[in-house]
Specification:
The chain is an alpha+beta fold. The chain has 10 helices and 4 strands; from the N terminus they run βααβαββααααααα. Helix 1 runs parallel beside helix 4, helix 1 (21-32) runs antiparallel to helix 7 and helix 5 packs parallel to helix 7 (164-179). It binds glutathione.
Length: 212
């Protein structure tokens, strides 16, 4: 049962897409919370449909975007995860404001930054189809961010339980593996092992593998 100690408006729908790694973070948070998960509908966002209401829901036009019962919207993935956790009221993903909570939020942003760096690499390469000349200095700088973050988590192992950090890190590592931008498992076999343990313990990791 949700406690909703802060009298938050109930979440109604999660607008995302099966391909989005950021959306996967929010989907996993929703699924980690058994009591709440089934009450928040999945709503596919259709970028090809000019009538899709995303621009009215999020001026940045990004997914994931969570719609509440009163029609208002919450985004981005980190805020959605915090909202779901606060609505639930049991601090399953993040403890109450405390040094530990802020350290976890910082780690969660590093974890999400891995996906951002991987995205930047993909788009830099994709955006130069005509001359095949991406700015390799930029691409390499993005890879360095991934390498640095993998080294960081190799020393600061994420939990095998679902929390704000582990739910952000797992899809990020999955995305880098899927896009093959960096062989992070060779860089940190320990982290590879930890991701496997996380996946074994939390079936929603496997259930949310991107559809592409
Ligand atoms: N910081 C955001 C990033 C969201 C994001 O970049 N989503 C991508 C899809 S994976 C998107 O909607 N991109 C469209 C755009 O940037 O216009 C979050 O964590 O939710």
């Amino acid at each position: 049962m949700t406690k909703n100690p802060f009298a938050l408006t109930a979440p109604k729908a999660l607008r995302t897409s099966g391909k989005s790694p950021f959306g996967r973070m929010a989907r996993m948070a929703r699924m980690a919370n058994m009591a709440l998960g089934s009450k928040v509908a999945w709503e596919d966002m259709d970028r090809l449909n000019p009538a899709d209401p995303l621009p009215q829901q999020n001026p940045l036009r990004k997914i994931p975007c969570m719609i509440l019962d009163d029609g208002s919207a919450i985004h981005d993935s980190t805020i959605i995860m915090q909202y779901l956790d606060a609505y639930d009221g049991r601090n399953m993903l993040l403890p109450a404001p405390s040094p530990q909570a802020f350290a976890m939020l910082t780690d969660a942003i590093i974890a999400k930054g891995i996906t951002e760096a991987a995205f930047n690499m993909v788009y830099e390469i994709r955006n130069h189809p005509e001359d095949g000349q991406p700015n390799m200095e930029y691409v390499d700088a993005q890879r360095e961010k991934i390498i640095g973050s993998v080294a960081y988590f190799g020393k600061n192992m994420p939990a095998t339980d679902a929390n704000l950090v582990s739910i952000k890190l797992a899809p990020s590592l999955g995305y880098v593996r899927f896009r093959a931008q960096h062989d992070w498992e060779s860089q940190s076999p320990k982290l590879g092992q930890r991701l496997q343990e996380f996946a074994d313990k939390n079936p929603f990791y496997g259930e949310t593998i991107p559809t592409e």
